[in-house]
């Protein structure tokens, strides 16, 4: 009996110290976050950000939050270069566009994401396609990919998109998929406020169906030609592509697809239509 009692006391003590350890670790993490929040961005980071049209449109509060988020993202995520050296410019650019859609969720930092793989050029996947019993070899060109704990980004594509802003942005695209995946399934519905859910899904999915129909009939028709037809692939791609335009070509999106703009604004909250 005594032995049993001693074992019980030992287990309780172990449990107690484990809880204390978790509390101390959490306290130290919060202290680290607070310190990070009050540390200004390096001049080299600000130089990179000043080149971005969308950064210069942010208000003072948004700039303050994004600075904190960029520092945290760069410290918490592991950047892995595949045949490319990871520079500060690469890290800051990816951190900026990844965190931009989450500004109004100040302490969120893609918790399940661990690795960012950066490739210099478009990745070519050789893929065997079997349809109607006939096997064909296909080449898939990939400029980005999001798979839960890792995101793949092609740096050459990022540079092109920043230099010639046509509305597309592979970083925003892949991180929109990461946000979409937050509720466990990539279905074009990110974790939107419950109060907006019904209207949000109704409008976004109606717009998706219209877009898909127009793309099948004539993808170069009127206002539909302004948006990359990749948005017609499925609901998840529609959400990711429209998110790109929300940040990169907000005035175009607001003018031609006001309902989509309005719904995305409910989710992202960042005032992008400073035209
Ligand atoms: Zn996609």
From TrEMBL:
A Gene Ontology molecular function term of the record: aminopeptidase activity
The answer to keyword Membrane applying to this record is yes
* Gene Ontology cellular component annotations, sorted alphabetically: cytosol
**TM regions (residue ranges):** 6-28
Q: Which UniProt keywords apply?
A: Membrane, Transmembrane, Transmembrane helix
Q: Which Pfam families match?
A: Peptidase_M90
Q: Does the keyword Nucleus apply?
A: no
Tell me which InterPro entries the record gives.
Answer: MetalloPept_cat_dom_sf, MtfA_fam, MtfA_N
Q: Which CDD domains match?
A: Peptidase_M90_mtfA (cd20169)
Q: What is this protein called?
A: Zinc-dependent peptidase
């Amino acid at each position: 009996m005594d032995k049993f009692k001693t074992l019980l006391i030992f287990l309780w003590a172990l449990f107690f110290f484990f809880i204390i350890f978790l509390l101390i670790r959490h306290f130290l993490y919060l202290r680290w976050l607070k310190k990070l929040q009050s540390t200004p961005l390096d001049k080299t980071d600000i130089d990179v950000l000043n080149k971005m049209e969308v950064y210069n449109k942010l208000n003072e509060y948004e700039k303050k939050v994004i600075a904190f988020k960029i520092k945290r993202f760069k410290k918490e995520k592991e950047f892995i270069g595949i045949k490319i050296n990871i520079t500060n410019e690469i890290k800051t650019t990816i951190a900026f566009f990844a965190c931009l859609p989450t500004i109004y969720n100040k302490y969120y930092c893609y918790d399940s994401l661990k690795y960012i793989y950066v490739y210099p050029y478009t990745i070519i996947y050789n893929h065997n396609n079997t349809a109607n019993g006939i096997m064909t070899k296909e080449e898939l060109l990939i400029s980005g990919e999001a798979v839960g704990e890792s995101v793949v980004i092609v740096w050459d594509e990022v540079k092109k998109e920043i230099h010639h802003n046509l509305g597309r942005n592979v970083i925003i695209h892949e991180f929109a998929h990461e946000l979409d995946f937050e509720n466990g399934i990539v279905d074009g519905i990110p974790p939107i406020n419950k109060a907006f859910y019904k209207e949000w899904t109704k409008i976004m999915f109606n717009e998706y169906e219209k877009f898909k129909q127009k793309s099948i009939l004539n993808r170069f028709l009127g206002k539909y030609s302004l948006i990359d037809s990749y948005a017609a692939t499925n609901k998840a791609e529609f959400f990711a592509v429209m998110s790109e335009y929300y940040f990169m070509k907000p005035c175009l999106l607001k003018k031609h697809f006001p309902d989509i703009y309005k719904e995305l604004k409910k989710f992202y909250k960042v005032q992008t239509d400073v035209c």
